[in-house]
């Protein structure tokens, strides 16, 4: 897999930059539409990142209209070209129903609390298949595709510039059977191995005895990016699509919850011990 680069993130950055330039030029969306003879919603959709393949010619025309410098103009055109590329996940359009993997591909830090299943970047193939069967119980081919896609997704952790992954897993996830005793044993053994050997991955277990905690509303993932112009994103998964929170107050609310959850969880060494105890008491 190539170094960190995602057309999803570049397209979002392009949308934000075009909006910023328009506002600096003191132009309304309606004024831009009139000047370029566009429909009322065309520019709005661009600025809201509701486009798939930005046209470099159109981007250059907007940059010219806003009076951008040559350097800025060429930078925007480059972003437009990068935004038109296809990520590896495009081959799995039947598996990935939203943009999450595109954001994950360029993230530098992934902080995730999981309350129902192991995070996809940490799953064994057998656990991935078992978790997908819970959704596609009657479609074996869909399950195989999902497991294949998840294994390819994990390749970002083998890159030289791999993101730092910090996962807090609710203990109930480790007690919830998925695919049988052997599958769960192999999955927990993998978590133990990762927690002890991987330099860029930290795994913590949130024990049941802590009782109620800030994560009771459900699982979430915070994605941070290496370029400061790309704002952080909170991702909340649901059955049909994902919810993305990007406004700073929303992100801070979840970051505060994340800080509380990771402090309440067992530290990594104690988490590995707890997982070994679970292997002995539940999966021998």
Automatic annotation (TrEMBL):
One Pfam assignment: HTH_31
Listed name of the protein: Transcriptional regulator with XRE-family HTH domain
Boundaries of every HTH cro/C1-type domain copy: 18-73
SMART domains from the UniProt entry: HTH_XRE
GO molecular function terms attached to this record: DNA binding
InterPro entries linked: Cro/C1-type_HTH (IPR001387), DUF5753 (IPR043917), Lambda_DNA-bd_dom_sf (IPR010982)
């Amino acid at each position: 897999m190539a170094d960190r680069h995602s057309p999803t993130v570049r397209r979002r950055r392009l949308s934000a930059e075009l909006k910023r330039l328009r506002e600096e030029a003191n132009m309304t969306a309606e004024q831009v539409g009139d000047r370029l003879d566009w429909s009322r919603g065309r520019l709005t959709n661009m600025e809201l990142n509701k486009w798939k393949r930005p046209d470099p010619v159109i981007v250059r025309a907007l940059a010219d209209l806003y009076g951008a410098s040559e350097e800025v103009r060429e930078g925007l055109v480059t972003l437009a070209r990068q935004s038109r590329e296809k990520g590896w996940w495009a081959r799995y359009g039947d598996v990935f129903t939203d943009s999450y993997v595109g954001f994950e591909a360029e993230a530098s830090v992934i902080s995730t609390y999981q309350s129902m299943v192991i995070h996809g970047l940490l799953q064994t193939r057998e656990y991935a298949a078992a978790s997908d069967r819970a959704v596609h119980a009657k479609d074996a081919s869909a399950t195989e595709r999902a497991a294949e896609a998840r294994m390819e997704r994990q390749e970002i952790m083998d890159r030289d510039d791999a993101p730092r992954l910090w996962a807090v897993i609710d203990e109930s996830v480790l007690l919830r059977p998925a695919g049988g005793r052997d599958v769960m044993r192999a999955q927990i053994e993998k978590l133990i191995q990762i927690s002890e050997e991987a330099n860029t991955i930290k795994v913590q277990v949130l024990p049941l005895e802590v009782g109620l905690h800030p994560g009771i509303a459900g699982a979430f993932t915070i994605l941070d990016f290496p370029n400061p112009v790309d704002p952080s994103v909170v991702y909340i998964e649901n059955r049909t699509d994902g919810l993305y929170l990007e406004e700073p107050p929303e992100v801070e609310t979840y970051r505060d919850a994340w800080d509380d959850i990771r402090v309440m969880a067992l530290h990594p060494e104690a988490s590995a011990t707890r997982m070994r105890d679970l292997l002995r008491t539940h999966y021998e």
